[in-house]
Each structure stands twice: as structure tokens, then as C-alpha cells.
């Protein structure tokens, strides 16, 4: 039996890649597409809906979401309530929202995944950064994305910062009497270290985690040159969430 999939944000850069992946996978069947502004009633033979409420009675197993930070929380909440296991790539969730969704998923006994990054290399980069932070507590993160990205810092940078913090503890870096002659010059602060966000046309999704110590440095870098880099992870997630009974945060939890 095929896994029936809904895709929210199917016209977007990531959503359109996800649609191609779903269409090319024998085990998946796309059953509905959502975009609030689309005038189409169907796209490549798949029904298109403007409002999630129209999907309440549809027969589906998984809800893929690549939309915007403003709507992704409500979408994921709706998906869990209707037992469509969410596979969410949209970034910009608050920690409290993720916690609320995990509680709801347990209540509903519904699997799901929120992953700020679906690229396997990015998962490794985050894991290596966490390992390194035990020995190199002085660190800065530089994330680089295309200039249409709506949230900053990226969900991947925040997740990396969270993983680093879990082993590093609290340490305020830099000179105590440091001043910014231009506001924002030192980037955003996260538990005493800095995150910098670069936005330029031509970029896709890239991140460097830079560690410094006495007389040595370490640089860990990941590049997504193309959005297909995320689709192996999305494909794997769709197959996994239907077997789970609660939502998790981070692709590494289902690998
Ligand atoms: P995008 O090209 O702007 O696509 C977003 C799409 O969502 C647009 O087509 C938009 O439609 C649609 N949309 C807006 N409101 C909606 C709603 N209520 N229901 C359904 N669709 C709605 O952005 P993108 O580059 O694909 O990125 C999408 C999200 O994925 C971002 O949060 C980004 O940070 C994240 N992302 C995640 C990963 C990962 O691996 N997890 C990788 C890359 C990007 P309109 O254009 O008509 O407004």
C-alpha cells in the first residue's frame, strides 16, 4: 500500500522539489496540494486546495510542509489533529511551539518530524560541531543562504547552537570591554557565542562552524549546492513517521 502524501507549499522552491520526489517514488502517492493563493483546482492531476480546513476529511498519511514560518505551526497542529504525520522542513519554530506539538503528537499517538535541515551532510556537520565543542568552547557560527530567505538566523544555525550549548555550558566569549561601532557587527548572541547570517543571491544553504583555541583553529563546513540535497532526508522521513507515534525534532532522531 502506498503512503498518501499532502504537500503544503508545493509551488515554492523546496515544496516543488518535494513534489517531484513524491511523484518519482513508487511507494508514495500525492493526494493533495495546498497553496493559499493558487487559482488552480488541480496540478498534474493532483487536487489543489487553498485552505487546510478543506482537507479535514481527506484520506492521507503524511503532511509535508515547506511553507513560511508564519503558517507552519498552525499547519503542523492541524496535521497532527487529523492524524496526517507531519514532515516539516519549514524553519522558524519557537522552542515552546515545538514542545506544544510534541505534547499534541503524544496525545494523538501520531508520528512526525520537524527538521531544520534534511541534508545528511548538514546532520553530520552539526554532530561534528557538538563533538568539537567539548574541546573547543570558543566558537562562532556563520550561516549563508539565498537572499529570499525569510527567517534569520537559520533553523540549522539555531539547532547547531543548541547542540553546541548542550556540551559547552555557558561561556561569554570576546573581550569584556568590547564595543560595537556599527550595531550588529558582532552578530546575534546565543549563550555567550555569536551567530552571523549572510544573505546573497546565488547561495542555496551553507554553514561554517569555526572553533578557535590557543594556537589552533578548526573549521567545519557544509554546503547544499542544490535543493535536491534535502530530498533523500525528506524521502526517508516520510517512510519513518508513519511507523512512529510521536513527533521528534531533528532528522538525526530517525536515522
Ligand atoms: P518559498 O520558495 O518562499 O516557498 C514557500 C511556499 O509556501 C510558497 O510557494 C508560498 O506560496 C507557500 N505558502 C505560503 N503560505 C502558505 C500556506 N498557508 N499554505 C500552503 N502554502 C503556503 O520558500 P522555500 O525556499 O521553499 O522555503 C520554505 C521553507 O523551508 C523555509 O522556512 C525555509 O527556511 C525552509 N527550508 C528548509 C530546509 C530543510 O532542509 N529543512 C531546506 C531549505 C529551506 P506563495 O509564494 O504563493 O506565497
TrEMBL record:
Q: In this protein, which residues make up the domain named Dihydrodipicolinate reductase C-terminal?
A: 121-255
Q: Which UniProt keywords apply?
A: Amino-acid biosynthesis, Cytoplasm, Diaminopimelate biosynthesis, Lysine biosynthesis, NAD, NADP, Oxidoreductase
This enzyme's EC code(s): 1.17.1.8
Name the residues that bind (S)-2,3,4,5-tetrahydrodipicolinate: 146, 155-156
Decide whether keyword Cytoplasm is in the record: yes
Pathway listed for it is: Amino-acid biosynthesis; L-lysine biosynthesis via DAP pathway; (S)-tetrahydrodipicolinate from L-aspartate: step 4/4
Q: One biological-process term from Gene Ontology?
A: diaminopimelate biosynthetic process
Residues of the active site are 145 (proton donor/acceptor), 149 (proton donor)
Q: Which residues bind NAD(+)?
A: 9-14, 35, 89-91, 115-118
Q: What are the GO MF terms of this UniProt record?
A: 4-hydroxy-tetrahydrodipicolinate reductase; NAD binding; NADP binding; oxidoreductase activity, acting on CH or CH2 groups, NAD or NADP as acceptor
Q: Does the keyword Cytoplasm apply?
A: yes
Spell out the subcellular localization from the entry: Cytoplasm
Task: List, for all copies, the residue spans of the domain called Dihydrodipicolinate reductase N-terminal.
Answer: 3-118
Reaction catalyzed? (S)-2,3,4,5-tetrahydrodipicolinate + NAD(+) + H2O = (2S,4S)-4-hydroxy-2,3,4,5-tetrahydrodipicolinate + NADH + H(+); (S)-2,3,4,5-tetrahydrodipicolinate + NADP(+) + H2O = (2S,4S)-4-hydroxy-2,3,4,5-tetrahydrodipicolinate + NADPH + H(+)
- Cellular component terms, GO, for this chain's entry? cytosol
What PANTHER family does UniProt report for this protein, alphabetically?
Answer: 4-HYDROXY-TETRAHYDRODIPICOLINATE REDUCTASE 1, CHLOROPLASTIC-RELATED, DIHYDRODIPICOLINATE REDUCTASE
Family designation:
Belongs to the DapB family.
**NCBIfam families the UniProt entry points to:** dapB
- What task does this protein carry out? Catalyzes the conversion of 4-hydroxy-tetrahydrodipicolinate (HTPA) to tetrahydrodipicolinate.
Q: How does it assemble?
A: Homotetramer.
Tell me what this protein is called: 4-hydroxy-tetrahydrodipicolinate reductase
